[in-house]
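Collaborator request, handled under Task 6.
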Amino acid sequence: FGDPFDIFEQFFGGGVGGFGGARQRKPRYSLRIEFMEAVKGVEKTVIIQGKEKKIKIPPGASEGTRIQYDDFEVTIDVRPDKQFSREGNDLFVDEEISLVMATLGGEVEVPSVNKPIKLKIKSGTQPNTLIRIKGEGVPHLRGGGKGDLYIRLKVKIPEKLNSRQRELLKQFEQSN
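Structure tokens returned to the collaborator:
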């Protein structure tokens, strides 16, 4: 046998490293966008190889999403959000409620990607309760629905109580 790479050439055609000839790789660029731009979609104007190009980012794009063009490729880099976190097409947000609201119940307005949502809090709500709101998450990149929004309820325990509040809590504890 001669050169072992001749076998590859016979099976795949072309030379080593190309398997079918030397293919020219398209230039790849990275584009950093805001979290909400990735969720809702956005059009950005960029300069590529000295020419102005419009890059349309579809709703639901995520970190690492690749957009192919004839002569180049763009990879999306998404900045994290201060309020929301994302897992696939689902969004997560923490909402702080008072000890009184967790105990007695009430209503709170929570953020979503479109507009705030009024959420009823049941009496006796426990810390870190997770509430799911269907269809309020990130649009699926290829269309066909949205993920869900999950709200984690964080109960804020008062750090300082006056003597009257302390006395009332002690009475409450003794009545149970």
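The cover message to the collaborator said: "Residues 153 and 161 are 22 Å apart (CA to CA). The two ends are 90 Å apart (CA to CA). Please let us know whether this matches your experimental observations."
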